[in-house]
Amino acid sequence: MGESPVDDWSAVPQALRTGAALPPCWEPLFGPFREGTIDDLVVVGQVGQSLDGRIATIGGRLEYINGAEGIAHLHRLRAVVDAVVIGIGTAMCDDPQLTVRHVAGPNPARVVIDPRGKLAADARLLADDGARRVVVTTRGAGAALPPGVERVALPDPDGGRLDPAAILAGLAAVGFRRILIEGGADTLSGFLAAGCLDRLHVVIAPIILGSGRPSCTLPAIADAEDALRPRVRTVPLGDEVLFDCDLSAQRRVVGQAKKSR
Ligand SMILES: NC(=O)c1ccc[n+]([C@@H]2O[C@H](COP(=O)([O-])OP(=O)(O)OC[C@H]3O[C@@H](n4cnc5c(N)ncnc54)[C@H](OP(=O)(O)O)[C@@H]3O)[C@@H](O)[C@H]2O)c1
């Protein structure tokens, strides 16, 4: 595909929020964030991985997987969404800030899926910096949250996992429409397997990591012919490559359905 788009970025987050036209070089990549194709939500997953499909070393942190351009892309994704979502595994392993620091743009709300109330009160994503902070939990997990932190409490799925569609519906009910599922593997895989992503951005770094955490853990399929084959655009990001995968064909309706598809 074409060149790596770098110009006029600062206009993009605001243009998406006001419905204004995007600078042309950003339209192919960020135009799909304008509105959902299936319902009124736009849900995008992202993963930064090595050539051998790893998102982290066995015990390590994520920041050495992607280079500067891959990380800038992640921060652009954060800047255009209302909320960025991670699982409690990533919150505990990386203690991320989930702010926009490498590009221009506003900080999104920060959401952690923590069904059993394990999040530490001093986690950096809970910092009171003006962004909304939300913990998705089950009704039974009653750990107190710091002042100002919102709780989206979902019915306890009887020891099973929360349905990603129910998580999205809960987030839509508190006002979020553009949502980034940032990871980790367990969380992202759940949304992918449940048909709850409109798009998946996979940024592949030119490194081979060896043993480490795989980028996805999905149910087995019997035959390669049954593989999901999304429409894909590739965009070079320096020496990394972004695969922008359109998953709208298998996306479940979660929010307000479009009248015609
Ligand atoms: N390279 C990248 O792009 C990237 C991005 C993010 C993270 N990471 C890496 O990913 C690793 C962590 O990933 P991970 O897979 O171990 O953990 P994770 O996905 O961050 O968190 C998984 C946990 O979140 C909760 N959870 C998520 N979805 C749920 C659902 N539908 N229902 C109920 N609970 C749900 C569960 O908590 P309970 O265990 O309490 O049930 C689950 O065990 C770290 O090494 C981090 O560095 C890499």
CATH class: Alpha Beta
Determine the number of helices (DSSP H or I, runs of at least 4 residues). 6
Molecular shape: globular
* Radius of gyration, taken over Cα atoms and rounded to an integer in Å: 18 Å
Structural class by SSE content: alpha/beta
* Number of distinct beta strands: 11
CATH architecture: 3-Layer(aba) Sandwich
**Which ligands accompany this protein?**
NADP nicotinamide-adenine-dinucleotide phosphate
Helix content: 10-25%
Mean pLDDT: 92
Characterize the biggest β-sheet.
9 strands, mixed
Could you name the ranges where pLDDT drops below 50 across 5 or more consecutive residues?
A: 1-5
Q: Strand order of the main beta sheet, please? A: 6-5-4-3-7-1-8-11-10
Q: The CATH topology is what?
A: Dihydrofolate Reductase, subunit A
Domain Bacterial bifunctional deaminase-reductase C-terminal: 44-221
Organism: Rhodoplanes roseus
Keywords: NADP, Oxidoreductase
Protein name: Riboflavin deaminase
List the helices and strands and how they pair.
Layout: H1 12-18, H2 27-30, E1 42-50, E2 54-57, H3 68-80, E3 83-87, H4 88-94, E4 109-113, E5 133-138, E6 150-154, H5 164-173, E7 178-183, H6 185-193, E8 199-205, E9 212-214, E10 231-237, E11 240-246
Parallel strand pairs: 1-7, 1-8, 3-4, 3-7, 4-5, 5-6
Antiparallel strand pairs: 2-9, 8-11, 10-11
Bound molecules: NADP nicotinamide-adenine-dinucleotide phosphate.
Domain Bacterial bifunctional deaminase-reductase C-terminal: 44-221
Keywords: NADP, Oxidoreductase
GO molecular function, one term: 5-amino-6-(5-phosphoribosylamino)uracil reductase activity
